[in-house]
Amino acid sequence: MPYTLARKHSFTLLMAHILTGSTAPPAIIASWPAPNYVDPETRGSGLIVLSILLIIITSIIIAIRIYTRLRITRAFGFDDAFAIIAYILGVALSTLVIIGNKYYYSGRHVWDIPPALFVPHRQYIWWGELLYILSTTSIKISVLLFYRRLSISFTKGLKRATWIGLAANLVYLCIFTVWLCLLCHPLNAYWDLYKPGWKQQPAQQLNPASCLAENISLPVSSALSALTDLYATLVPLVLVMTIQKPPKQKIPLYALFSVGFLVVIFATLRAIYTYKLLNVNYDFTWILYDCWIYAELELQFAIIAASAPALRPLFNRATSAAHKRGKRVSRVFQRPSTNNAADAGPQICLVEHHKKEGGKEGKGEVVSQTTSRPVESLDPSAASASPRSWAQRPVSADRILEHGSRRIDNPHLTV
């Protein structure tokens, strides 16, 4: 190997050693091949495609959520505000991931990264970690605030559980944001260490820069993020368990809130790959590709799962409107009854009328028949004579999801 190429190879390996957090054993570094800047092996553009696709999906979901909360339920709250903040930060993170994959070569082997890109690559890593912490914490706070809106009429223990979750996420946010800012002293040393001759500057000779090791703190941060995801998923499932209804009627709510387990799986995989990146494989930029994939899936699926309950009122309205249109069409083709028309007075044709025979409430056979009823019997004042008032009727789970910001004192729920 010519002297200049050998010297360049040694410098590249030195920079790659620093890029991996200065934890790679010398034997592993020595086993790395010579850099290939012309036609290197890459992971492809799958990360870019995934990021764009997730941005499109979450943009549609968030737009529908905002419309539903502003125009249908008219119950826009702090949970919606934090969801929007998480979405904006998520778009910024996805954009940064796309730029990093395209221009800073995430998905290449660490020894194939040109030394000129080490400084911007480290800047991109630092901002990506910050956006990840801010965005994932924001969406978990949004989820827990939504549970607070639902748990107004439930036990004090569940209320405390949501407050504990909120406090834990705020502590996580503060600790790891501060840690990220204090990772190097001064902070710009996190990326300026890769500038040739930067350590030889007079200021650095008088006050040398120092950085903390990342091989423990980053995996711990990822593991705690997965743990808080699991907590935010379990809280609503415990809430559903307290509902005094048959298990069959709880299945839709269990299915709705169990989407969060997908987020937990993605966060766990990210934590595993982060540990592998810094303590096992050391091929930083190659494994970083996997870390960004699971970070994107964790965040964007968290936004989708957090918005799913808020979309149910729009879905219910759409299905109700379709049902009403079908009934109107049926009425057009239904012939009115002419039996005893002169004696019964003004008539109205009803497509289907259900009545119970047997005399006792809850017994007898339900008979479905087409009848004609006098218009006078549809007087709105007749509703007040019903022995079962609205206050005595069970509150549906859909109504709880649609009007979460309003106090509902009836603890009985139906799905």
Automatic annotation (TrEMBL):
Coiled coil: none annotated. Residues 380-394 have a biased composition (Low complexity). It comes from Knufia fluminis. It is a multi-pass membrane protein. The chain crosses the membrane at residues 46-68, 80-104, 124-147, 168-191, 222-241, 253-273, 293-315. This is Rhodopsin domain-containing protein. GO terms for cellular component: membrane. Residues 399-415 have a biased composition (Basic and acidic residues). It comes from the Eukaryota.
